[in-house]
Amino acid sequence: MPRGIGRTAAAAANRRELSSHFHTTMTNVSYAMNPLLKWRPGLKDGAEILLLGLALPLYYLVRGQAQERVGEAIIRGKEVVELEQSLGIFWEVHLQRAILDYGWFVDGLNAFYLYGHLPLIGMLAIWLYLWHRPQYLIMRNAFLVSGAIALVIYLNFPTAPPRLLPDQFGFNFADTIFEQYGHERPLTPNFFVNQYAAMPSMHFGWNMLVGLALWLSTRNVFIRALAVLMPLAMFTDIILTANHYLLDPILAVPVVALGLAITFGGRWLVLRILSPESKAAREHGYTTWVYWLVGIDDSVLNRPRSVKQSA
Fold it and tell me: Is 248 inside a domain boundary?
């Protein structure tokens, strides 16, 4: 074969291969973006924004009501230290001192504490809402219920974090976030902050909850890696920045577990009363709203009814 004809054939083959790769890539992008492209705002989208727009500020406003019980909170913080000492797990001081000389690392921890919680959770919640609605609805309700449980604990048992324990106790924790940002911390208005809500740590608990939702929503290895790393990174962060004791994230686990149990219990009860296959569920317009409220994707109403075989 003449050399010129061979080069032409090779170039044509390369163009076909590039065209095939481009077509495959665009098909994958189109498939991935399909839920977003098909999304049209509806009443439930507005209700979702209203629900979270009211619940989160209410959570932080109520959470801030324990600010006046400073003495009680400090005493309880010291009691947590004494409990950890008796268990042989009071490692927070030594762990923090090991990293304080690395300013770039401390700055990174401070940034992750502020931005790796609600801002990151918010972005992932939008992704779950558009692409994985069933997992989102479960996470949302468990998020709200566990937050309500944590509020009860904060109001009745205010606890000072390690960074706010008086130096006279001899622990000398560094308040790394205050040292970097002062009172005007980004994304954290002062009237939303309860300095004495150390136990349980919902910074860890909610990151763990979102990580669970991410893990269940996909098999993508990178997203699953994020699902595992999010709570682990936050666990490390809250200890090294002296915002929590080691027991705080541990106690957040049963709080989140109870939130999930109540969420699944509510779903089970509603599905027993308003089964998707029942005539009442399909005929009453309020069914979809009841499903939305308890965290059930109303697409279950569009599934074909099962046909029972007669004997």
Answer: yes
